[in-house]
């Protein structure tokens, strides 16, 4: 069957389902088998949704799944309702990001009501990703990553919580909310430094926290660096810690060449990602006499 055929069949199923729903409302039918009709309508909406999916009509698929979700709710079957809202969200994601978020939020409400916090956390991440990529609203993405981290922590899924928190910190720093970024990096660093499998990453988090301090205030960065070395002695021997010391020295001497040289040397061994490059440039701009202030690092 071609796509047009699938769509036609789906439209017929939708019409059939609506008839069943209307019939279930009439007084006599309500007394005799109203629920059976609702169940049949539910099944038809779901079949229609899958036909629309095959025809790649994502909005229509989302709408059909939504109808099924509402009927499942009427039948008191929360789990099926939540699943249908998630299916609706996934379909809408391809056509209407805002509608996808609405459906996923509806699913989250049901899951939290049922005490299913881990699955709710997962859907908060999906919403955060839609805000990141489709709607480009970073503030909202941060809020959903935070909510997700909260739910994961409550369920003792600390490594999943930390993954969300690191997203929060990276975005907060980009938005110049340095205090928030510092708190998160320090918290994640402290929670990973005693774990033999994760402690290698801890130096990275302390490094990022120190850079955020550095953008705000040089002295803060120095004090923070001392604190991190004390908390986590392995940090002292890391290339990150050595780079920070060179940068602090170059900054103090207002020597932007030495600053750039130290960054280049570090970059030649481990490539700097976009986030680190941005932060290191922000610090460099605060060195007096750095040309027109939009210095390069390479």
UniProtKB/TrEMBL annotation:
Protein name: NSF attachment protein beta
InterPro entries: NSF_attach, TPR-like_helical_dom_sf
Pfam family, one: SNAP
Family the UniProt entry places it in: Belongs to the SNAP family.
Superkingdom, natural source: Eukaryota
Coiled coil region boundaries: 128-188
Principal location: membrane
Source organism: Catagonus wagneri (Chacoan peccary)
GO biological process, one term: SNARE complex disassembly
